[in-house]
Amino acid sequence: PYEVIFSFDVGNGPNEVKVQSLTFLNDNQWHYVKAERNIKEASLQVDKIPQKSHTAPPDGHFRLQLNSQLFVGGTASRQKGFLGCIRSLQLNGIALDLEERAKITPGVEPGCPGHCSSYGNLCDNGGKCREKYSGFTCDCTFSAYAGPFCKKGKPASSVFKNSS
User: Fold this and answer.
1) Residue numbers of the domain that contains 120
2) Which intervals hold domain EGF-like (predicted)?
């Protein structure tokens, strides 16, 4: 839950770049992940955590040469390892049409909208919209309201503590 690993093999054995977070990454929230492997290095950026990079070994292939399927977010034996959205993917400098590939790949759907960004303000009175696996929830913690959409007023005793 605290780690993202970019693992790849370009002809000279497996390589990994790891980024570790101080907080959970499997928190039903959107996270920014950028994994890149170019001629000079492999790098991994997760949210605003400092980027990690490794210098490319001198004896590896410069271009990715696929002799089988490319798996992103899983492997041939573990294809259900990733849950989320991939907005863009370039292979050897060419952007792949992910929308078209999603239409023909089982378990993958085109489009990347989240409930919180697609439908405007779902939570009232300062409630924070949080994405879930299928749907959303409203976090009313920092408001004087409760309920599924932060519309129900909390009793005064739970909002203010008596100082006497």
Assistant:
1) 115-153
2) 113-151
